[in-house]
Structure formats: C-alpha cells, structure tokens
Amino acid sequence: MNQTCVQSVCVLGLGYIGLPTASMFAKSGINVLGVDVNQRVVDTLRSGRIHIKETGLKTVVQRAVNSGTLQIGVVPAPADAFIIAVPTPSRDDHSPNLRYVHAAAEAIVPHLRPGNLVILESTSPPGTTLSLIPILEKSGLTAGADFLLAHSPERVLPGRILVELVQNDRVVGGHTYEAAEACATLYRAFVTANIHLTDATTAEMAKLMENTFRDVNIALANELSRIGATVGINVYEAIRLANFHPRVNILRPGPGVGGHCIAVDPWFIVNAAPKESTLIRTARQVNDEQPGYVVDLVEKAVSHIVNPSIAVLGIAYKAEVDDVRESPAVEVVAKLRKRGYNLRLHDAYARQLPDGTPFESELAVVVKDAHAILILTDHVMYKRLVPSSPELLGLMDRIIIDARYCLNAQEWRLEGYSVHQLGVAPSARATELERVS
Ligand code: SAJ
Q1: How far is residue 297 from each of residues 303, 392, 401, 422, 424, measured CA to CA in Å?
Q2: How far apart are CA 257 and CA 277, in angstroms?
Q3: 150 and which of 101, 179, 187, 254 could share a cystine (Cβ 3.0–4.6 Å)?
Q4: How far apart are CA 149 and CA 133, in angstroms?
Q5: C-beta of 312 in contact with ligand 1 (< 6 A)
Q6: Model confidence over 151-182: pLDDT tens digits?
Q7: With left for phi above 0 and alpha for psi between -120 and 50, is residue 95 left, alpha or beta?
Q8: According to the model, what pLDDT value does residue 206 have?
Q9: Which of 10, 27, 183, 261 does the annotation list as catalytic?
C-alpha cells in the first residue's frame, strides 16, 4: 500500500496526552485538527486558554492555535493520519472500559481514506489495537491493504510532558510492519530519541509492563514500610543504605498509589491473564491497602485528643502536580471522615476534591486551631516548612503526621513537636540525614 506522506493529522482526545501531542505535531509544521467531545474543552482551547496544568504547554498550544496549524473541533475530518488519545479507565471491578476508544474509532470511519494511518495512543489492554479493525473496516476499506493501523503509547511524566515527549525513547507497534514504520516516521516529526518498532500487541504489553514494574516496586516499598515500623527501624534510612548497592533501587513508601496510570494499567494485565497474574494482583492490593495504614498512624498520633481537628496538607496524587484523580490522599480523607475526624484540606496546587468540593487555598487558615498536621503529598511548599513557619502559628497542638517522610523529624522534635512518620518506628534512632549539628 502506498502510504501518503503525512501532512495533516487529526487527534481525537485533548487531555493530558492528546493536547501536548497535537501541539507538538503542529509545532513541527503538520496541520493538526484537535478534536474533543467535551464542548467546554473545545471552547477553552479556542479562547486561547488551556484546561490542563502542565509546564510550558499553554505557550505551545497558544502558538499553534494562533498560527492556525492547530485547529480545535468537536468532530473529526479527513486527514492523512488519525491519533486516538482518549481515556481508557477501568471499571469498579477493574475490567477495562474501552468505550471511549471504540467511540473514537467509530467517529473516524466516515473520514477514513485509502493511504490513511490510524494510531491508538491510549494505554490499552493487549489486543485493543487489533480489535479496532472490524470497526474501521466499516468504512469499506481493508486494514493493511487500504489503511495502516498502529499503537504508539506515551511514557511521559506529568510535569515534564513536553520534554519527555521529545527525549524519551518510544515504542511503536503495527498491525503490519509497514504500519509500524509509517507510525515511526510520523513521530520522528518531533521525537529525537530512538523509536523501537514491534507489533501492536507487544507494544501494548510493553507500555503496561513499564507501569506494572513501577507498581510492584512501589508495593515492595510500602510493604517494607509496614515491616520497618514493626521491627523498630526507620525504613527510609534502611532503603537509603540498601540503595548504595550498585544494582538495588528500592522505591519510596508513601500513602498509596495514585494517578490514572500506575493504579490502573496493571489491572489491564491481570484482566488479560487472571490465572497467571498473582504477583501483579497482590501488589495492587498492597498499594490499595496503604491508605489504611496512614489512617492507623493518624489514630495513634491523636488518640489522646477528644474530637481532634486535623489540617490535611496535600490532596494531589503526587508532588508538584494539581491532579487529584485516584489520589491516595482522597482515600485517606474519606476514611478519616468516616471515622468522624474533623478535617481541613489544603493543597499547593489543587483547589477541589474529585467530586468538585472546594477547599481552602490559604495554608495559615487551614492550620489555625487544628490539633495536628497530616502531610499526604510532598509538595515543595510543605517540604520547606520549618517549626517557625508563620503559617503554623495557629496550630493548637504540636503534632505532625508525615506520610511522605518529607520533614526532618529531629529538627521538629527539638522545637517540641511530636512527629509520626509512616514506616518509622517511634524507637528508631536519628538517621544520618536527620542528625542536626
Ligand atoms: N509513588 C510512590 N513511591 C514511589 C514512586 C511513586 O508512592 O517511589 C506514587 C506517587 O506518589 C503516585 C504514584 O505512585 O501517587 C504514581 O506516581 P508516578 O510518578 O510513578 O507515576 P505517574 O502516574 O505520574 O507516571 C507514570 C510514569 N511511568 C513510569 O514511571 C513507569 C510515566 O512515565 C508514564 O508515562 C505514566 O505513568 C503514564 O501515563 O502511564
């Protein structure tokens, strides 16, 4: 099949991945139509604003929209290449919900032409890309002979998306080798790193394995935090020392695993091969139980106070992002509220819970008259706090509960604070890092 040189691209889905990807293609000189079914998103982008907090993205999008190389619409139009970058959430039973992917493929059908390239970018269960063939062939065209189909998953870190889109190696997988090659040629419009070619299903699994590798390793760290508290050590100190081994890299314990990727992608593998996925499923369960261990830590820290009120610092799923989706902090808040605790919420970037409930933006207001501070996200704003910070003057009792090991406990104890840290036994001696001169 003679594949046309791509001069126009239609990107379906303008979220955390679709919008940056569309903008990078536009920046490389390709005419892009960015499509989203959410009219609010379309109106926001057309007005020159963006609906996503991401370093440098607003400038790139505004330049592309103002130059006319990035058009924004609600429905697709004919293009040399179509990129599906829509959400692939999992249901409550952890089964994959592919209705957005299927809807996007259906929307492409009327516009599919011979020589076109269709790319699924969304992280998807193995076999999803090939499952689009019967939908796309409703166009009367034949996959492989008339149009090409490939999978091109991203691996960018929120907060560094525009850098990593360009600099990270990429894996692309084709329904045919020709499709993989055409996909690689297209992404070379902005990718400067290596692009590795394979088949579609292998590319799908490689992406899922990347995040599953991380989830399993975070589960190890979280389980070690429980063991550390039981055997009487500071697990972070033990991890620090263990990681001096040239081939060991134990990750950091925390309050759980958030975001719409690491907590979701492993379930795509478990769902595809349930009998064989023992460790992967168990790691998910370990991480999902971690918020409960934070609640236990809070209970112990304030057990001597009647009706304690707690200032919760950090709702986003990780430091320096404003995304509260699937955040373990949200799970901790829900559990504490269910046990009757009076909570005041704060985040350095986010301003509302996933259900839209807004919370206070002024830290001093949140801390005033609280008995304790609970840190759930290690935003730099919180790591910079010191006992004399003016925002803390209104704190009623000097109790710090640190689920991210982001404060120097010795420094706070010297100022009369009681400090409770996940994975650190009360009897654990001061660590190398905490010894204050
Ligand atoms: N976390 C820990 N301890 C750690 C590392 C992370 O508790 O040592 C927690 C974080 O606090 C957060 C969650 O895990 O709640 C996920 O954080 P993350 O930084 O691992 O992941 P994401 O979801 O922001 O980005 C990941 C990245 N994948 C890998 O690092 C293998 C990114 O490269 C992917 O592109 C992204 O998922 C995705 O979109 O798939």
Answers
A1: 10, 21, 8, 7, 10
A2: 19
A3: 179
A4: 8
A5: no
A6: 999 999 988 999 999 999 999 999 999 999 99
A7: beta
A8: 98
A9: 261
